[in-house]
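Hi everyone,

Forwarding the result from last night's run.
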Amino acid sequence: MVQIDIVYRGDLRCESVHAPSKAQLSTDAPLDNQGKGQSFSPTDLVATALGSCMLTTMGIVAKRHGWNMEGARARVIKTMVADPARRIAKLETQLVIPGDFDARAKQALELAAKQCPVHKTLSASVEMPLTISWTGSSSPAAQGA
């Protein structure tokens, strides 16, 4: 269990504190929803959570096997819809994984990405296509899901 304390500061801005570490972050409503767009929106944090959870879960698997994933990157493209209610419709994730990985390692890492807790939590309500580019391989190939 982790406690996060959130205070509404007005003008569609919230400040959050991660109780265990005291780390802080602010959210702001996006420009297209009456906000100033001066920080991550709450739904931006969902997209951020997906990409960082995928990389973290892959990193756990890589660490267990002695594989180096340092420098791996994720880009998440968030698409919102308003019908029937405003919500995230799609989170398109593009991962770039440097290093040389054999087929078994690639399969294990891709499975880890798709099994991260955020992906599993969102899987029923949000379209989540995934593309992985293996940049260190002798024959880099993008794998889609």
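The longest helix spans residues 42-65.

Cheers,
N.
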